[in-house]
Amino acid sequence: MSISKRVRVESVDVLSDDWYLLKKTTFSFLRSDGRWQRQSRETYDRGNGATILLYEPERRTVILIRQFRYPAFVNGHDDLLIETPAGLLDTADPETRIRAEAEEETGIRVREVRPIFDAFMSPGSVTERLHFFVGEYRESDQVSLGGGNEAEGEDIAVMEVDIDEAIAMIGTGEIRDGKTIMLLQYAALHLFR
């Protein structure tokens, strides 16, 4: 049976429509035992996004970025967050958006990108589906300093890191961003054997 046949939406209330969209939905869900159960959930809709791991196989390096993330800060992370370049799709397709984000944030013009998977990063409350990509880079692909979009509050530092060092940074807690951990582990398994 399709999940859509197991959900009956009763009401949707918009709680906030400021930065992104926060809704409270009351619905009934048909449980596995055949009973309908009334539930209520809040969903945070910020749109779908894309992220990319830029890698250089010969030198065994990856490009990461460091930036301030207020939600991580208020949850006890008193440092910049180390991440892979990423951004919301807005009205673009995932490949177009990640090419633009990679160049804006790192200054690297990506030649080819390869989609590897997509994932829901926090499906208990956030609707976002994140598209994951990898792409090779060369030093000659650097077209600017990067740094992000100041109008969006971005103040991004670019890091070129050895893949083994990047993997070690997960264990030390220097890298705590979920999408970045997923892409680095993918790289260790498939790109840097």
What can you see in these coordinates?
Strands 4, 5, 6, 7, 8, 9 and 10 form a seven-stranded mixed β-sheet that branches. Strands 1-2-3 form a three-stranded antiparallel β-sheet, with no helix packed on it. α3 packs across α4. The longest helix is centred in the middle third of the chain and has 13 residues. It is elongated, with a radius of gyration of 19 Å. It contains four helices and ten strands. The model has no long low-confidence stretch (mean pLDDT 96). With 193 residues, it is α+β, with helices and mostly antiparallel strands. A hairpin with a 5-residue loop joins β2 and β3. The relative contact order is 0.18.
The proportion of residues in beta strands is 35-45%
Helix content: 10-25%
Mean pLDDT: 96
- Shape designation: elongated
The number of helical runs is: 4
Order of helices and strands: EEEEEHEEHEEEHH
Low-confidence stretches: none
How many strands, what sense, and barrel or not for the largest sheet? 7 strands, mixed
Rg over CA atoms, rounded to whole Å, is: 19 Å
Structural class: alpha+beta
N-end to C-end Cα span? 42 Å
Tell me the number of strands. Answer: 10
List the helices and strands and how they pair.
Elements: E1 7-17, E2 21-30, E3 36-45, E4 49-56, E5 61-67, H1 70-74, E6 81-83, E7 86-88, H2 94-106, E8 114-120, E9 129-136, E10 157-162, H3 163-172, H4 178-190
Parallel strand pairs: 4-9
Antiparallel strand pairs: 1-2, 2-3, 4-5, 4-7, 5-6, 5-10, 8-9
Helix pairs in contact: 3-4
